[in-house]
Design goal:
It is a single chain. With 203 residues, the chain is an alpha/beta fold. It has one domain: Aldolase class I (TIM Barrel), CATH 3.20.20. 42% of the residues lie in helices and 18% in strands. It is built from nine helices and eight strands. Strands 1-2-3-4-5-6-7-8 form an eight-stranded parallel beta barrel, surrounded by four helices. Helix 1 packs parallel to helix 2 and helix 1 packs across helix 9. It starts with a strand and ends with a helix. Its EC number is 2.5.1.3. This is Thiamine-phosphate synthase.
């Protein structure tokens, strides 16, 4: 997961057809990972939307990660799942999905991060690194905690939370290799241009 833009969707912001169109533009701009997060949808809607996104991701040859729902990830044969601390335990998700699937874990403390690595998580989602309006319960972690996590684990770290076109370079200058964004791409009139801009920051 080297120098990558990771796009996370938000079904609270727009209808699925609009989202699909914006995601396609973002993938065209070089987004390399997509996480489908559906907090409002029924299981049937989530499943149908995940299938559509899977075909889109296949077209661009990038992984589709499902937020929270191991059952949906399994049902559509997605590339992986991203789990929070209150979701199904990583070890259980691994038994269900198998060794080949990507499993990411949200971590806000060094202890969470080390346990996730011990249990063979593929990457960590660490944040929020800035205040964010996308997740109301997201608390900002200190730069010290972030660096402590970096120092203690060797698996890839994805930074998330409040990352915008204006502050992304601050993180990249700190040596961050992967940033996860929502609004920074999906709220733009031209998601492709936003994705290109973020990718260029790594250069």
């Amino acid at each position: 997961m080297h120098k990558t833009i990771y796009l996370v969707t938000d079904d609270a912001k727009m209808d699925f057809d609009t989202l699909y169109h914006k995601v396609e533009m973002a993938l065209d701009g070089g987004v390399k990972l997509l996480q489908l997060r559906e907090k409002k949808s029924s299981s049937r809607e989530f499943y149908n939307n995940a299938l559509k996104m899977k075909y889109l991701c296949k077209k661009y040859d990038i992984p589709l990660i499902i937020n929270d729902r191991v059952d949906i990830a399994q049902a559509v044969d997605a590339d992986g799942v991203h789990l929070g601390q209150s979701d199904l335990p990583l070890t259980v998700a691994r038994k269900i999905l198998g060794p080949e699937k990507i499993i990411g874990i949200s971590a806000r403390t060094v202890e969470d991060a080390m346990l996730a690595e011990k249990n063979n998580a593929d990457y960590l989602g660490v944040g929020a690194v800035f205040p964010t309006s996308t997740k109301n319960d997201a608390k900002v972690i200190s730069e010290k905690v972030f660096h402590d996590i970096q120092a203690k684990v060797s698996i890839p770290i994805v930074t998330i939370g409040g990352i915008t076109l204006n502050n992304a370079s601050t993180l990249i200058n700190r040596g961050v290799n992967c940033i996860a964004v929502v609004s920074a791409i999906l709220n733009q009139d031209n998601p492709k241009e936003a994705a290109i801009y973020l990718n260029n920051l790594f250069k």
